[in-house]
Every structure is written in C-alpha cells, then in structure tokens.
Design goal:
This protein is about 65% helix and about 5% strand. It has four helices and two strands.
Length: about 110
Amino acid sequence: MSRNITILGLIQMLLVILGFFGLGIVMKMNGYPNEDFGIRWNSLALFLRRHGLILLLVPVIWTIFAALSQSRRFIFTLAAWSVLGIVFAVAIISLFLYACVDPFYRPIIFGR
C-alpha cells in the first residue's frame, strides 16, 4: 500500500507544479503583472500565482499522515487517507483550472 501512497503524493505534487506554471502562462499571456486595459485580476488567480507553491505542503503532509496510518490507525484508516488523497488531488486541479479559465474581469465602460 505504500506504493499507492507514494504515487498519489507524487501526482498531487505534479498537479500543484503544473497548475502553478499553467496559471503563470495564462496570466502572462493576458498581460500580468501590468494593469493595462482596465483588467481586474481574479483574486483566486492572483493568490494562486503569488502563493500557489505553498500548496506543495498539502501532498507532503498528506503523505506523512497516510504513511503513519499504514501500520496502525492514525486519525483515519489507510482507506480513508487514500480517499482523502484523491479528494485533495481533485480539489487542487479544480482550483488551478478555475483560475486558468477565469483569470480576470474586464468591466464594461460606457461612454467615450
């Protein structure tokens, strides 16, 4: 079962790194960090771009707790930690996908 824990932890880390770089590419293509053309950046996209690598702590902490619960029950059973790891992976990719798809707002300006 330790092989599954390792693979799932590495997948979570890979999702954080790819999401961080992908969001950076999308935001730089749209003019980040400049404030041109009245663009208002999405607060989640800005947070993930500035502090997204902190999410690397989630897979590390999850892997430690899942490994500790391998021989005996540690907070949850190993099966519960596995499900929680999948939920974390889906949540991480969902956050970064949402931030990549909707990184900014452009307000409607009436008049000249």
